[in-house]
Structures are given as C-alpha cells and as structure tokens.
Amino acid sequence: MITVVGIAMGGEVSPRARAAIAAADFLVGGTHQLALFPEAAAERFDHTGRMKDLRPFLGARRGRAVVVLASGDPLFYGIGSFLARLSEAGQCDALTVLPAPSSIAEAFARIGLAWEDAAVISAHGRPLADVGAALDRTGKVAVLTDDTNTPAAIGAWLGDRDGDAWICERLGAPDERVRKLTIAALREAESDPVNVLVLVAPKRARPVVPFTDDDAFEKKVPKKGLLTKREVRTLSLAALGLRPGDVMWDLGAGSGAVAIEAALLGASRVWAVEKNADGCTIIRDNVARFATPHVEVVHAKAPDGLDALPDPDRVFIGGSAGSMATLVEVAAARLRPGGAVVVNVATVENLAEAVAAAKATGLAWECTQIAVARSSPILNLTRFEALNPIWIVAIRNEAP
Global pTM? Predict the structure, then answer.
C-alpha cells in the first residue's frame, strides 16, 4: 500500500500527509526529502542514485504501509507517474497520492500570472525545438530546465525574439529569487540549477499545411532547380508523414526549403546535407530568416557525413548527385520503425533509378507524378505556365 506525499516548496506537507508519514512502515525518498522528517520512525530507503532498486524494494513490501516522498505534485513530471504505472500493472496493492502545489504553480503565483493557457515543457533531455514550438503556439510557456538546457541555453536558442522571461530560482527556500528580463537578454543570464523558466511572447501562427511562397527563401540566381517548388514541397512533406518530434535528414538540401518547413511543422532536429559550399551559406541564411535553429547544415556530398548523424524518422532526397541507389539504400537501412523516405526526381532516368532503388529495399513504396501550372498575366489576360513535372517516390518501412 503506497501513499505518495507531495512536499511543497518550503518543505510543508498537509496534515493528512503528516499522519501518513507517522503511520508508515517504510519511508522512501531522496536524501534531502528524508531529512525533512527526522521524527519519522519508519525504516528508510534513500533512492538517490538507486532508482533501479525501487521497484524490487516496493515489490518485496506488498501489504505494508509505504510512504514515498516527492516534490510538489507527484503526478506532474514526478515519481508518481512511475508508481501509477506500477499500480495499473497490479504491482502494488493500492496507491494514494497527496499532492502539493507544483513548482509550475508556485512560479506563476510568484509572478502573479494566470497559467490556464500556458504550455508546460520539460527540457530534461529533450530538444529545445519543443520550447520554441510551444511558445509559437501558445505565447506562454513554463519550462522545467536541466543542467544542459539552462535558461541561458534556451535564451541562446530563442535568439532575439521579442518577449519577457522570468527565472524563478529555489522557490520556497529562504534565498528564493524571481527575476524578470527580456528573452533577448536571457542568453547572458546565470541561474541556480533549481529553477523554473517562464516565457511570454507574441504568438507566431503557423499554417497547418505549409504553402510558403518560393520567393520567401534565399536561393541561387539564376534558378537551377535548387529550390523545391512550393506545391511539390507540400506534397512531399505530406508523403513523409512528418510527426512532431521527428528527426529528419534532407539530402541534397539545395536552399533548405524542405528542411525549414519540416522544422516549422514540428520536426525536433533536421540535418540539411548539401555538397555545395555556397548552397550551405544559402541554407544558413534561410535558417536565420525563418528562425529555425534546429536545422543543422552539413557540408558534405551524401552519403559522406551521414555516419555521424542520428538515425532518422524521415529522409527527404531532393538531390542525389549521381548516388541515387546508394542514398536510398543507406536511408532505408538507417530508418527508424514507422519511418519514410521521400525522393523527388525530375528526369525519366532518375525516376527509373529511384523506382529500382525503392524496389530493392523490399519496403512498401509508391510513386506520384506532379504536374503543376501557375497562373501568369499576359497583357490584360491570364494564362497558365507549366512547371517541370516532378515524380515523388515514397518508401515506408511499414505498410502505409
């Protein structure tokens, strides 16, 4: 029988929680949490650095009164979630949770800001793109930081974005501190490791289906096929089946338009691999223009440079530079479960090679031809100008 007690920022617990602690046979918690209750007579288990031992410890004490100490609301990014899964699996007899205000609730209370419309992000081992996407969507975000994704690191990622930031440090402690500064100044801020970061900024509406005008991107002039046209980009991204949090490769990235729109759609990390140095410069310019720092540029002729990248969920091949079969083979081999490879080709010869490569993977594949004509003025009339037909070859490592 497990009771999970949430401890408030200042170390306070409710009368009901204190009674549960007094009646416990076993008291479980971290070193600091256990030290808050020196009067408790229960046998103690300090899980600091020993979380892997907690499940067998609890399993051997079924039928006994066990109190687990936690910070704030145990079911909010806390140990309560782990214990709830044990309960659901029938691995403990009963579970009672006695929460205290979470650090997020405490932070907003100190600031005096309502937070029913805020997004809450844990940055513990997670990509900072999640923070930017949430801020774009809601305009109000609370971030649980860690030793790597500090307030300063988050500020550096957000750059010169307009908005305000509050660093709420050591809430409930005698030396707690709450500071307000601009998001642009956040990158220079030092902070205590125990903190909650609150960000408020103007929302940035993103279309559900991207259709960014081609002229919004920097590109080579004269145009030499180095920008995937917007109609083809939209259908190629749809064929990829991109999901929030996906890792993506854009091979033969050209101007980086597909990589950037994938990042705007929620991909957590995108690697734009481009063999031309001037193309890499153009991609970096576009990354800055669209504020997508989670697009990383790799100056290499793929498949060179791919060994150093993490396995992808999605791969877009916009240019093969004569290595079509090799690129498809490598991409398919490295693809994570449920992933997809999408190839754009503009010539019959490359189409034949792409289809043969798709067949050779043994995975499900399909091919779509895209023929687009755009309206164009002629005198006081309007005609249509055809763009070059493009074939989209989509390969998936599970049935579509």
Answer: 0.79
